[in-house]
Amino acid sequence: MERGIVVVCSARNSGRKPSTVSNDAPWILTVGATTIDRDLQSNVVLGNGKVIKVQTIQSSLYNIPLFTF
After folding, report:
1. Residue 34: which residues within 8 A CB-CB, separation 6 or more?
2. How far is the CA of 58 from the CAs of 15, 44, 49, in angstroms?
3. pTM > 0.90
4. What are phi and psi of 52, to 5 degrees?
5. How wide is the angle at C-alpha 57 spanned by C-alphas 9 and 26, nearest 5°?
6. What DSSP element (H or E) covers 65?
7. Which residue did the predictor score with more confidence, 17 or 59?
8. How confident is residue 48, by pLDDT bands cut at 50, 70 and 90?
9. In the predicted model, what is the mean pLDDT of the chain?
10. Given this model, what pLDDT does residue 64 score?
11. Which SUPFAM superfamilies match (predicted)?
């Protein structure tokens, strides 16, 4: 993170172990996508030792309108 800008990237399930995601660039915060309908919570430990509590934001995929182009 430089100048307060966080770079976020979505990833597919291609990490080193099953159910993991990865990105080769160390400055990118990598997140995974899912269709699971439950809330997940975890802690993110930063390099300076600070711990941030995070939670998924879930919405039902069935209520999303479909658009065709």
Report:
1. none
2. 22, 19, 28
3. no
4. -115, 130
5. 25
6. none
7. 17
8. very high
9. 71
10. 59
11. Subtilisin-like (SSF52743)
